Amino acid sequence: MLKILFSPSEGKNVGGDTAAKEIFGAVSARDEILRTYNEIVNSGDEEKITALFGIKKFDDCKPYIEDIFDAPLMSAIERYDGVAYDYLQYSSLDKNAQNYLKENTIIFSNLYGPLLGGDPIANYKVKQGNSIGEIAPDKFYKDRFSYQLDLYLSNSDILDLRAGYYDKFYKTTQPYTTLKFLKNGKTVSHWAKAYRGIVLREIAKAGITSLEEFNKLEIENLQVKEIKKTKNKTEIVYEIVE
Predict the structure, then answer these.
(1) Which CA distances in Å does 127 have to 9, 174, 184?
(2) I need a labelling partner for 117 at 20 to 30 A (CA). Which of 81, 91, 124, 222 fits?
(3) How many other β-carbons are positioned within 10 Å of the β-carbon of residue 92?
(4) Residue 109 above 80 pLDDT?
(5) Are 82 and 193 in contact (CB under 8 A)?
(6) Cα(205)–Cα(231) distance, rounded to whole angstroms?
């Protein structure tokens, strides 16, 4: 089966009515970081809260101040609301495509670590790169989940659509494929986020099960310019043509 590694987003959708269930990996492995986050958020210490969230005004922090152990839940693939997710347009997909995303997407959260798209999570705020108390999320989850992820992905094809930062959470030792997007021959940033969402959407719609199938998938406005192979990494370079 094809598994897609994906980034989270700073923006979140609020609310949720998804039933609680066990999320990816050992639940107890997250206890320390979740408890630490919860203690800071509910401490009333405005300086610590604004620093953790990366928000200047405390009033803007209030939507995120709640007990995450008793907060409304939403599947991870629905919770995030940023450029890639805007172009994914999850809510407009049919049930088969939505279920595909819930089962085959692994999102690397700055609070929860690696999650399946269908894992229910609370609304939260952690600025990328920030520590939670004394805990650095990237190192915390790399130490606790790398072996488990290796086992989980051992019989799967891997398409890594994450932003480079999230390599810090997990670096696969297995063969994997990444994508690079160029426009007029130059690497793009904003549009890279958008096209990661578009690519994930087209994969879900087609129910792609392998990299072989993915390589045959035609995606509007994208042309394969080059395929580079180094060690266990294959990089497909696309030119955006509009």
Answers:
(1) 10, 30, 32
(2) 222
(3) 9
(4) yes
(5) yes
(6) 31
Task: Indicate whether 110 pLDDT > 90.
Answer: yes
What's the CA gap between 162 and 153, in Å, rounded?
16
Spatial distance between the Cα atoms of 6 and 185, rounded to a whole number of angstroms: 25
User: Among 62, 43, 41, 44, which Cα is nearest to 52's?
Assistant: 41
- Give the pTM: 0.96
Other Cβ atoms within 10 Å of 80 Cβ, number: 25
Amino acid at 148: Q
- pLDDT tens string 141-196: 999 999 999 999 999 999 999 999 999 999 999 999 999 999 988 888 878 999 99
Question: Tell me, what amino acid is at 167?
Answer: D
Q: In this structure, what is the dihedral angle of CA atoms 79, 169, 153, 100, given to the nearest 10 degrees?
A: 10
Q: Check: CB of residue 52 under 8 Å from CB of residue 124.
A: no
